[in-house]
Amino acid sequence: MSTGPVGVGFIGAGNISTQYLDNLTKFADVKVLFIADINLAAAEAQATKYGVPGFGTVEQLLAIDEVEIVVNLTIPAAHAEVGRQVIAAGKSVWSEKPWPSRPPTPRRSSPTRRPRACARRARPTPCWAPVSSPPSARSPAA
């Protein structure tokens, strides 16, 4: 951790990055060091406009030791994976999208679960419910 300004990198150089860069480049205790985007021309344009010293790929950004916080401004479909990459690189991540773009795929969590119909749906939809033992297999009440 540094004792001077906090090093910040951006992943995503689209429209919303302008609002973040307008503000973060004005604080004395923040130093924006790098902007990454799959569109390198967009990353370069934002870096030039805001006086950011570096631009390039996500891998290049994550290799910079001085970058402590990464602002994740990617599209919803890529957001969670990019966030995991940032964390795996040992950096903090700022994320304004707390949920994935679609719910996780349902899966059987245990062999002791079986499908049942969900009562809250108009059509019966498979859900997962615990398999209960028949009354004769239950232990007697104490």
Automatic annotation (TrEMBL):
Compositionally biased, Basic residues: which spans?
A: 110-123
Residue ranges with Low complexity bias: 124-142
Q: Where is the Gfo/Idh/MocA-like oxidoreductase N-terminal domain?
A: 7-98
Annotated spans, Disordered: 93-142
Q: What is this protein called?
A: Gfo/Idh/MocA-like oxidoreductase N-terminal domain-containing protein
Q: Which domain of life is it from?
A: Bacteria
What Pfam families does this protein map onto?
GFO_IDH_MocA
